Amino acid sequence: MSNLASVLNGASFNGLAKVDEAGLFGMITLRGDLGSAKVAAAVKGATGQDVPGVRQINGDLAGGVAWMSTDELLVLVPYADVTAKLADMLTALEGEHALAVNVSDARAVFRVSGASAREVMGKIAPVDFSAAAFGPGDFRRSRLAQVAGAFWLDSEDSFAIVCFRSTGDYVFNLLSAAANPKSAVGVY
Description:
Blueprint: E1 12-14, E2 18-21, E3 26-31, H1 37-47, E4 57-60, E5 63-69, E6 72-77, H2 82-92, E7 99-102, E8 107-113, H3 117-124, E9 139-144, E10 147-155, E11 158-164, H4 168-178
Antiparallel strand pairs: 1-2, 2-8, 3-6, 3-7, 4-5, 5-6, 8-11, 9-10, 10-11
């Protein structure tokens, strides 16, 4: 058996905000009719959460579900449980026109936290990160400078960021540069 390793083995940077590579998390892409009772039951069984509204996340990295598009959810579970959770979801979805796939090893997860977390994120993503426009539970699938990513606010000053594993090093360096103490802008 291979040794499990996250993309950057827990790399961290302290500056305007703290940037951490968050480790391994279980992630399942679920495509289907988000209004379906079977989809709702599969999500609830895997995470204990309801299907979220548009651009929302219910729960967290240890057990949550995020809206990715009109027919796609990102289901978040502990890494050690992803295989069993996926099997349970597939059973719950039997007979439903849906697709559920384990994408855990194709993704990297980061956290940006601290009083200037909104400012750091505002430098790299085309989103209004003001407290009035983006609050806890809000979720976006967007750009992180030159690469695709998704992010949400766990609390008033803590973001979770998901990107492709292949761009993990780029995203960590991007977040770290945006958190450089000499780059303070003071917008948020």
